[in-house]
Amino acid sequence: MATAFTKNLESASLLRFPLSYRSYFLIRLVYGSLDPATTVASLWLLGITIGIGVAKPRLLPWAALVLLTFAIVNLLLARMAFTWLERWLAQRRTREIMGVIFFLCILSLQLTGPLIAFYGHKSKPETRLLGQELSKLQKPLPPGLAAAAFAEMAQGQGWTSVASFALLALYGVVFLWLLNFRLRAEYLGENLSESFGRQASAAPTPALRPGWDVPGLAGPVAAVFEKELRYLSRSGPMLFTLVVPLVMLLVFRSSGHDQDLFARAPELTFPLGAAYSLLLLTNLSYNNFGADGSGIQFFFASPVRFRQIMMGKNLAHAAIYALEVVLVWLGTTLLYRPPSVRVTLAVLGGVLFAVPIDLAAGNLFSIYSPTRVEAGVFGRQRASLTTVLASFCVRGVLFGGAALMLWLSGHYGNPWIVVLILLLPALLACLTYTLALSHLDRMALDHRENLISQLSR
Questions:
Q1: Which among 167, 201, 255, 415 is least surrounded, fewest beta carbons within 10 Å?
Q2: Predicted TM-score (pTM) above 0.70
Q3: What is the average pLDDT value for the chain, to the nearest integer?
């Protein structure tokens, strides 16, 4: 699944060459069949064959035939599954549904440890019987049929063993037919794209839908703001980022231990959740043009200042972070206890201090060290090493200042005094952001060659 969601070699490009269907089928069958997982599994089957031959030499020819067939069945199953998976992922709606299911599976694995820790001492002997009953479900599947072919032949049930082997081979025939059906459609010219097919009658041109009219924002800023939110709402990694802090709160809450940090100091739950949420937005705020790719050229060609473009992106990222902070506050309230007024005001003051400076630093590094990324792709995408190290340093200073504000809020009992203490750093942070924003036009023009060359790769 992880391989399917990443950008790989497009094997359909082989159709540009004068290949027969038989050659194309064999190439697609071999492609991906020599990966490390298949190699390890092949060695595993070889070890089983040698073990059976040592234990009962008379079963060695039969074991070699059954395990070779079992390997071919698994190979056909894997290639068939990935071929159909590529077809489903070529459609945006199906890709989004499968992405949500994939995210839920990954997040569910985080709950395995807490559940084992909570229910581990409550295991009963009856659960073993349940496992034995569930294991019977694999008997009609290829592994169960291969095992039955061995056992029945060892017990002298030749015809029953041959029947199990025939059913195993039947699985391979079905997988081969499904794989052939999919590859033949590709070979005959099926285009795996998200565009609509040609229609007999021209459909009426849909009416133009005006962009968002955000009060207080200029037209270009509102347009970039809308564009960023629309693109990020369809990004699987972005949705995954929004859910992760809540899942981590649930994992810590369901760990079953009363001696963890949140149990000793529950007032730190909301501040740590807000800080963790800011860390998750590093790939966005420190690489603003990464998802634009070669579209960065349109920004230079448009009659819009770069400060307006960057302001729209910053507002979109700030809106996402504000939503994340609200979700963390709700999660803290439901899973632990509502944060006090003092802690809430201190966190808001820390956010007003940290976010403007963090956005200003991200704007600078987005121009000096851009890296192209795919908004809808997981894995195999790394930011620039300079950007990563710089983000760690900036975040360390910001979190240290926010921790100092949190300590001052605990030192003074009156929450309104805390507001006055936090107001001055927030004003200084906003001035710093405004000053950095005023120099972006000149910086973008001075580094336009680097931006275009790095993002158009």
A1: 201
A2: no
A3: 77
